[in-house]
């Protein structure tokens, strides 16, 4: 048979493909992107099931290529698709599947040669279409049955999903097309998990109490709602059996695990907090946290692997009687073939934590950066911490963390001490080894005593240079055992300084948690069955069995078996920087006296630190290359970089590029760590907006200053022009005055006396025509002056 599977890149499809190909069925399907196309095709063709004479030459198509998808669907005998992932796409597949297959070539014929085999369409839906039903079907002890599927009531946001289910069920045609809807519980396992939000929160924020995401209006508050769930691996097995069954007994199938009848949301949060966080949960979210949850759901937050980080499905409160004797699950798959049905996610939580980390490519980069003083260790460590979102660990930061550790631990210890005092003697608790909290309190007390004795206020490198070696080792080991370092990794700046110190720091802790994790899957089902047996015995002694009491006792037993991994996180990346001493001394001399003292780079300190590094560098490289317990490998491949000039510190080809390649080895690019988060993106947007505003303000200020300078220059030019004009005018006046001076003298000597005399005569005589009289007088006067001139 030829089976078409949509979204071949998903974890469910990958498991289903493996089952089908191992059973000698040809698999074709779709992927979402071109990057997934080549990978999916290569995986399909590598299996012998694809090496058949009538096999399709191009078994994989892009989901956006409707023509190619329709051709693959029409050639298939069975179509398996997800209604939840894309309802519209699933209905398009059904429409294409109902059409008769093309016959324009051998490659277009169905795998059965166009025989009378009935085609089958399997739609993977969800119990979300039951979200408005009561938790139990009849009273408080009976779960819903798949035979009652016509009574399902969806919430408004899932109404379209129910409509699609109804259309698929009604498309069935006798002897031509069989349709079946598989309503699965919330899927866990792999990358596309319905409970991915819980895993992400526990992994990202291990120091915070894990929030139980109960939204306002939830049927049961504080996370006490029962979650119907199923492992993707068990769902794949069930879907495989449905696809290959000779006939389908029912057209609507419920797929949930048995543990879902007793597992609550709070149980899952408590278990994840133990394995990934601090072991505590918060079941009373603040208004701000509720708003964040609602915004996260509205934004349809997803990962690069397709996981939907939604909390809406986690509000379900439903119980199904599946698998029961009458259910399709029990009829098609024997109980022993299921991997997780009996004890569910909670019973195999350690496995699913590792499965989530692997599926999401959450590779913790545990890095050590070493080098002589002033070689740039802290700068490189800070850059790596910023680029890969890792905590930068220095001795000063670790000591501060120890001294400022959460005070709630002290309060809890006081309560524990009070309870211990109340216990009777011989209870055996006194023989228990010291816990991590006990070691932390002893370390904090020792550091406080040292700080008070040495009168150290600021935790600078110079102040910590006198810290006793045992306290340094204890502080480093405490931090490297923390959940944050285990989940995310770290960048250890400049430590250890010697081989002896490294051997003490990275000595593995003798613990049983490693064997517990391996044995947990084997013991989970037996523990679950024992709990159920205990519940039955209790039921015999009472008139009525309360399922909530049974659920709490069963979950408590599974939670008690969980133990947090307390193992020292050895490094998987080691970078050693080298530089000649004259260059380092030159860089040290650029420090001010205060900075040199604070960074322990005075002349004497520099000489001592450089001598220690020179003597220990080769030994440290060998130590890390032979370090045991590093991700099932023998040692670490050490990256050594030689910086021989000051320009080398600014040359990305010499420094940053090799470091990036080294840090991202062993995977496809930068490891996933869910960064940047929505809050970080908003912060970056605010920073960019502030930067743009600052740049605009600076540009506006520069333009304003330029305008002021231009105006001042213009006014200066106008003032200069005005002064020059006044000078020209003054010079012209002086020139005219100088030119007019001889003429004035002439007139004063010759004309003005006669004119003055004539005007006086006019005044005396007052003639009728004074102008004519004055002219006659001047004419006579002129004759007289002329006559007197001739006579003389």
Automatic annotation (TrEMBL):
InterPro entries xref list: Adenylat/UMP-CMP_kin (IPR000850), DD_AK7 (IPR047499), Dpy-30_motif (IPR007858), NAD(P)-bd_dom_sf (IPR036291), P-loop_NTPase (IPR027417)
Molecular function, one GO term: ATP binding
A Pfam family this chain is assigned to: Dpy-30
Stretches for region Disordered: 414-436, 516-550, 683-713
Protein name: Adenylate kinase
Biased composition (Basic and acidic residues): 420-436, 683-711
SUPFAM superfamilies: NAD(P)-binding Rossmann-fold domains (SSF51735), P-loop containing nucleoside triphosphate hydrolases (SSF52540)
Ranges of compositional bias, category Acidic residues: 534-544
GO aspect biological process, one term: nucleobase-containing compound metabolic process
Keywords from the UniProt entry: Kinase, Nucleotide-binding, Transferase
């Amino acid at each position: 048979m030829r089976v078409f599977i949509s979204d071949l890149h998903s974890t469910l499809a990958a498991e289903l493909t493996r089952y089908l190909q191992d059973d000698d069925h040809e698999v074709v399907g779709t992927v979402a992107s071109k990057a997934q196309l080549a990978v999916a095709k290569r995986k399909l063709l590598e299996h012998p099931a694809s090496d058949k004479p009538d096999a399709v030459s191009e078994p994989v198509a892009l989901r956006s290529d409707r023509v190619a998808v329709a051709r693959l669907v029409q050639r298939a005998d069975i179509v398996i698709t997800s209604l939840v992932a894309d309802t519209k796409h699933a209905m398009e597949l059904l429409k294409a599947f109902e059409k008769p297959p093309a016959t324009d070539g051998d490659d277009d014929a169905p795998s059965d040669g166009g025989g009378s085999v009935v085609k089958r369409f399997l739609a993977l839906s969800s119990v979300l279409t039951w979200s408005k039903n009561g938790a139990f079907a009849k009273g408080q002890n009976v779960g819903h049955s798949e035979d009652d599927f016509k009574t399902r009531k969806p919430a408004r946001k899932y109404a379209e999903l129910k409509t699609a289910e109804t259309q698929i069920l009604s498309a069935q045609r006798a002897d031509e097309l069989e349709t079946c809807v598989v309503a699965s519980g919330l899927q866990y396992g792999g990358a596309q998990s319905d409970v991915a939000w819980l895993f992400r929160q526990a992994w990202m924020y291990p120091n915070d109490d894990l929030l139980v995401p109960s939204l306002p209006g939830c049927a049961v508050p504080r996370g006490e709602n029962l979650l119907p769930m199923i492992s993707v691996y068990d769902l794949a097995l069930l879907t495989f059996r449905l696809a290959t069954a000779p006939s389908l007994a029912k057209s609507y199938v419920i797929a949930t695990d048995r543990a879902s009848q007793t597992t609550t949301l709070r149980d899952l949060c408590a278990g994840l907090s133990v394995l990934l966080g601090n072991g505590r949960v918060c079941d009373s979210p603040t208004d701000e946290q509720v708003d964040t949850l609602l915004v996260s759901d509205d934004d349809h937050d997803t990962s690069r692997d397709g996981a939907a980080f939604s909390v809406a499905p986690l509000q379900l409160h439903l119980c199904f009687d599946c698998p029961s004797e009458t259910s399709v699950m029990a009829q098609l798959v024997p109980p022993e073939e299921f991997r997780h049905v009996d004890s569910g996610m909670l019973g195999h939580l350690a496995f699913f934590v590792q499965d989530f980390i692997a599926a999401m490519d959450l590779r913790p980069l545990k890095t050590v950066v070493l080098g002589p003083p002033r070689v740039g260790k802290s700068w490189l460590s800070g850059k790596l911490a910023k680029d890969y979102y890792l905590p930068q660990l220095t001795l000063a930061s670790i000591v501060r963390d120890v001294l400022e550790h959460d005070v709630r631990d002290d309060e809890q210890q006081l309560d524990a001490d009070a309870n211990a005092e109340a216990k009777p003697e011989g209870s055996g608790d006194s023989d228990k080894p010291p816990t991590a909290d006990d070691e932390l309190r002893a370390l904090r007390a020792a550091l406080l005593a040292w700080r008070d004795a040495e009168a150290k206020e600021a935790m600078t490198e110079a102040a910590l240079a006198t810290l006793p070696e045992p306290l340094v080792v204890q502080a480093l080991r405490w931090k490297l055992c923390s959940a944050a370092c285990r989940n995310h990794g770290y960048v250890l700046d400049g430590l250890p300084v010697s081989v002896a110190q490294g051997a003490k720091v990275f000595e593995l802790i003798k613990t049983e948690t490693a064997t517990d994790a391996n044995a947990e899957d084997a013991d989970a089902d037996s523990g679950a069955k024992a709990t159920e047996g205990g519940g039955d015995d209790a039921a015999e002694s009472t008139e009525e069995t309360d399922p909530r009491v049974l659920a709490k006792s069963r979950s408590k037993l599974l939670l008690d078996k969980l133990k947090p991994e307390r193992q020292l996180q050895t490094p998987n990346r080691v970078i050693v920087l080298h530089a000649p001493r004259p260059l380092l001394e030159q860089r040290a001399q650029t420090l001010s006296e205060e900075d040199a003292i604070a960074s322990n780079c005075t002349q004497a300190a520099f000489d001592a630190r450089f001598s220690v590094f020179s003597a220990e560098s080769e030994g440290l490289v060998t130590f890390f290359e032979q370090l045991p317990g590093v991700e099932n490998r023998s040692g670490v491949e050490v990256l050594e970089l030689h910086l021989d000039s000051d320009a080398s510190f600014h040359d990305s080809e010499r420094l940053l590029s090799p470091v990036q390649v080294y840090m991202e080895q062993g995977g496809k690019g930068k490891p996933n760590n869910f960064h940047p988060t929505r809050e970080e993106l908003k912060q970056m947007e605010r920073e960019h907006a502030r930067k743009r505003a600052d740049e605009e303000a600076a540009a506006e200020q520069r333009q304003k200053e330029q305008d002021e300078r231009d105006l001042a220059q213009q006014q200066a030019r106008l003032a200069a022009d005005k002064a020059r004009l006044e000078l020209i005018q003054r010079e012209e006046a002086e020139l005219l005055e100088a030119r007019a001076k001889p003429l004035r003298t002439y007139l004063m000597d010759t004309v003005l006396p006669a004119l003055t005399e004539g005007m006086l005569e006019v005044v005396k005589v007052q003639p009728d025509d004074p102008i004519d009289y004055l002219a006659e007088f001047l004419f006579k006067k002129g004759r007289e002056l002329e006559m007197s001139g001739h006579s003389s």
